[in-house]
Specification:
single chain; Elongation Factor Tu (Ef-tu), domain 3; OB fold (Dihydrolipoamide Acetyltransferase, E2P); 6-stranded antiparallel barrel; disordered N terminus
């Protein structure tokens, strides 16, 4: 019995020991140390940032030309295709030439008639001139005879051989001869001017001009591109009647494109032709360097601003008209202060922050920003010169996180 009791006690003791080993929580495992987040940093430095004004506009062709025929007519052929690149001189469309060719033939016939009339007028005018010349000679001889008769009768009257009535008759005959001679001189001068030939020559010139106009109208039936560019619109069709008031084809120049902005009186003084700017295109998620190419010297009275044009290079035709463009026109004002790269600053709840690195730990610090350029931004408060701020890896950080500084690529 004693042996059984002893064995039972031993079993109970083992059970208690086993129970104690299984029921007691194991020693807590040590937590693994938090891995530092790799980041890239830069030092807060003193620098200059050009003040700038931001605008939003749309890209537009630098040149737009609407093409219509010079004279109305039915479209016979149409070679223009939407989006097609054309060179200056390329045939875009042609008009029916039937009526125009008939007009040329009619003008040619009129010109030949005028030439024939001129030739005939030349013959008649020569005859008229010779007749007037003969009449002048005859009138001159009559005048000479009348002068001699008057002198003779005047001498006889002085001698008392004739009456005063006979002298008066001789004097009247002299006056009539003088009048006839003057008329003959006028007629001879008019015939010498060959008036009829002048009229015929004018008719020939008129017919020549009409012929040239008819030929030009025929040439205008072939309509070519006045500039090189891209066809942005085709509104006509073969068989339709085209007129000078209705464009058939529109051509645009897309290299360069332009963005139009309107600057206030205060802003216009710091911008000039040649000022560089950066165009941000949200649709393509890219930025492009551009240049101010035109500034109006007169304020738009409705907008109370000065129109400005910015030229955007587009050699590959990647950019399209009417794309939204955000641009900043940098002025001449330079702000000297603490600056950091723009990518170091991030927004959260309408406030700006940076991650400042101290002792291998990133601290989230609120900052006040000022002027900014395409790559740098002014920091007014929040950090000091020489402090390190994170420029890459912020999205993986939280306030107080350990970091591992890596070299910039």
């Amino acid at each position: 019995m004693k042996i059984k009791a002893k064995s039972l006690s031993l079993l109970l003791l083992c059970a208690i020991v086993v129970s104690g080993c299984t029921g007691q929580p194991a020693a807590e495992e040590k937590k693994a140390p938090e891995a530092p987040t790799p980041v890239q940093v830069t030092q807060v430095a003193t620098g200059t940032v050009a003040s700038s004004a931001g605008f939003t506009g749309k890209l537009a062709p630098s040149k737009t030309v609407q093409i219509a025929p010079k004279a109305g007519g039915k479209i016979q052929t149409l070679n223009a295709v939407l989006g097609q690149k054309v060179a200056a001189g390329t045939v875009l469309f042609t008009l029916d030439k039937t009526d125009l060719m008939n007009a040329v033939k009619q003008a040619e016939a009129g010109y030949q008639v005028a030439l024939a009339s001129l030739k005939s007028s030349g013959t008649n005018s020569n005859q008229a001139a010779q007749s007037a010349k003969n009449q002048l000679a005859q009138a001159e001889q009559t005048l000479a005879n009348a002068q001699r008769d008057f002198q003779r009768m005047n001498s006889l009257f002085q001698q008392g051989a004739i009456s005063s009535q006979q002298l008066e008759q001789s004097q009247l005959a002299l006056k009539n001869a003088e009048t006839a001679y003057a008329n003959a001189q006028t007629n001879a001068a008019a015939a010498g001017e060959m008036t009829q030939i002048g009229v015929s020559e004018a008719s020939v010139n008129q017919a020549r001009v009409q012929l040239e106009n008819a030929r030009q109208q025929l040439a205008n039936a072939v309509v070519t591109a006045p500039i090189s560019g891209y066809i942005s619109e085709v509104t006509g069709a073969v068989g339709e009647i085209a007129s000078p008031q209705m464009p058939v084809v529109t051509i645009v120049v897309t290299n360069p494109l332009i963005v139009k902005a309107n600057l206030s009186e205060a802003e216009i003084t710091s911008v000039k032709v040649g000022t560089k700017t950066v165009i941000e295109l949200p649709a393509l998620a890219k930025e492009i360097q551009a240049t101010v190419t035109a500034i109006s010297p007169v304020m738009d009275n409705q907008l109370k601003a000065y129109p400005v044009e910015v030229s955007v290079p587009n050699p590959t035709n990647e950019l399209k008209a009417d794309m939204i463009a955000n641009l900043k026109l940098s002025g001449n004002t330079q702000v000297t202060s603490l600056v950091v790269p723009r990518k170091a600053v991030f927004d959260e709840n309408n406030k700006q922050y940076v991650y400042k690195v101290e002792g291998g730990v990133a601290k989230k610090v609120e900052v006040t920003v000022g002027e900014e350029s395409s790559d740098m931004i002014e920091i007014k408060t929040g950090v000091a010169k020489g402090e390190q701020v994170v420029v890459r890896g912020q999205t993986l950080l939280k306030d107080g996180a350990k970091v591992e500084i890596q070299k910039s690529e």
